[in-house]
Amino acid sequence: MKRIIPITVLLFLIIIATVMNSWALSVRGQVVKDNKNSDPVQGRQVYIGDYEGETDVNGNFVIWIEPGRYIVRVDGYGETRIEGHNEFNRAINFRPRQDRSLRVIVR
Predict the structure, then answer these.
(1) What is the pTM of this model?
(2) pLDDT, tens digit, 9 for 90 and up, residues 31-84
(3) What is the average per-residue pLDDT within 3-31?
(4) Burial of 86 (C-beta count, 10 Å sphere; 0-12/13-18/19+)
(5) What element of type H or E holds 76?
């Protein structure tokens, strides 16, 4: 009987870890300027809703978020657009277990 408790606890922990992992997803991306050269934007805070990250020297970022609908913003820029979408400052859906890669265009 004593061996059942540790196995039960182990199974419970595995289930909890699996559920929690399915809630978070990673969003990788690059921030570039809306110009002819698509120059990378470095050292800026990127916000996906209330989640945030910072761009590196190549404009790349990684942010872990919960699934939901968010507007992507970049500190110091008034308008952002996700490549593939025509509208600026549009909310984007992020679904569970669907890690995303974005190219964020700013002006």
Answers:
(1) 0.76
(2) 999 988 899 999 999 999 999 999 999 999 999 999 999 999 999 999 999 998
(3) 73
(4) exposed
(5) none
- CA 54 centroid distance within chain: 11
Whole-angstrom distance, CA of residue 87 vs CA of residue 94? 17
**28 pLDDT more than 60:** yes
Q: What CA–CA distance (Å, rounded) separates 34 from 79? A: 10
What does R_g of the chain's alpha carbons equal in angstroms?
18
Domains of the chain by start residue, with CATH = 25-106 (2.60.40.1120)
| Distance from C-alpha of 55 to C-alpha of 31, rounded to nearest angstrom | 7
The single-letter code of the amino acid at 29 is G
> Given the structure tokens 């919960």, which residue do they identify?
66
